[in-house]
Each structure stands twice: as structure tokens, then as C-alpha cells.
Design brief:
The protein is of the alpha/beta class and 221 residues long. 56% of the residues lie in helices and 10% in strands. The protein has 8 helices and 6 strands; from the N terminus they run βαβαββααβααααβ. The radius of gyration is 17 Å and the shape is globular. Bound molecules: glutathione (GSH). One of its GO terms (biological process) is glutathione metabolic process.
Amino acid sequence: MGKLVLYGVEASPPVRACKLTLDALGLQYEYRLVNLLAGEHKTKEFSLKNPQHTVPVLEDDGKFIWESHAICAYLVRRYAKSDDLYPKDYFKRALVDQRLHFESGVLFQGCIRNIAIPLFYKNITEVPRSQIDAIYEAYDFLEAFIGNQAYLCGTGITIADHSVVSSVSSLVGLAAIDAKRYPKLNGWLDRMAAQPNYQSLNGNGAQMLIDMFSSKITKIV
Ligand SMILES: N[C@@H](CCC(=O)N[C@@H](CS)C(=O)NCC(=O)O)C(=O)O
């Protein structure tokens, strides 16, 4: 096995998703901090690793992969002893892929990033209510996806749970989850938070992002 290095920053949801998968697989890795606010991801050195200059980036034996969903899938295919986290069965895998794409397009891009970019990079401190409504719409979908299952794709945790919990655990700071309106989502979040090492791998970083949002937002308009 080659040397694994994860480049990232704690507050980043997709970085935390990769940490959850690395831990679930029992993989040793070096973690290298990339200070986004200081522009370390825009350096020539980092662009050679990832020309899209996003974190996370995974380095495996001198090769680089970015995009958390690709990283988590790669880690399972390459290193897992079982396919539980990312099933080989065509239909089961399609279900995991659907949730991963949902995280990428709806939760991360549609909810978190749309709110974060104006706050952190454009000095805008008011958040349109429509963006908070979009979070609740996403919760409605997740409530339906979970249904009577313990996890997003059935009875066991998959990389879809790692990915989605990384976003939802920060979104709760912008749109609280009412257990009466979202009993399935609330129960799932509790089950994820009860996983070993959850707090250090995801909980603390999720709170950091919530605090960053709170320090910028003056008003929902
Ligand atoms: N869909 C990507 C999102 C990656 C992403 O946008 N990461 C943010 C941090 S949370 C970033 O690196 N932003 C810096 C930039 O876009 O220049 C993934 O899952 O890896």
C-alpha cells in the first residue's frame, strides 16, 4: 500500500466525508492542512495537485484525486475488504451514487456553497430566505430517501451516509431539524453522531462551519 495523504481543512464538509471513509476503512494517512482563507489552494504548487484548486485532495503513492465522492469511492474499491460501504451490486451501487450526486448538487452546491460564497468571499452578510427554504426542501427529500431504513441506502452505512452527514451536520446551523417534522432525518443524524470517532472526524469541523456562518450572517431577508 502506498502512502496516503489527505489535503484539507476541518470546516470543509467534503474533507470530513473523506475522513469518515478513511476511518471506517481503518486506513492510516497523513493529514495536511490547506488554509483556504489564506489562499493556499490557489498556489502553483497546489494547482499542480488539483487544477480545480478545491479540497479535499487525496494523494496515493504520488497520484492525486480530488472531488470527495470520487475519493471515497476510490478508497473503498482500492482498499476495502468488503463492499459494504460501496456495494458492487448494480442496483445497490446506483442507489449510493444517487445519494452522492444529491449531496454534490443539492446539499453542497445548492445549499452550502450558494450561501457560503457571498458570505465568505463577497462580504455580503444577508442571506435570502429562499436559500434557507432550499435547505428545508432538501430535508424533505432526505426524509423520503431514509423512509423506514436505518441509513440512507438500507441497513448499513455507506459512503453516501458519510457524504450526506458532512453537509447536513453543518446545515443544521442554518436550518434546524425539527424532530416532529423530520423524524427519520433526525433519527438518522443521531445514529450517525453515535458512530465511533464521529465527533473528532466530523462533529467538530461541522460546528466550525456553523460558527463561521454565524459570525457573518446579520439577517435572513
Ligand atoms: N464537490 C466537491 C466540492 C469541493 C469544494 O468546493 N471544496 C471547497 C471547500 S468546502 C473548496 O475547496 N473551495 C475552494 C475553491 O473552490 O476555490 C467535493 O465534494 O470535493
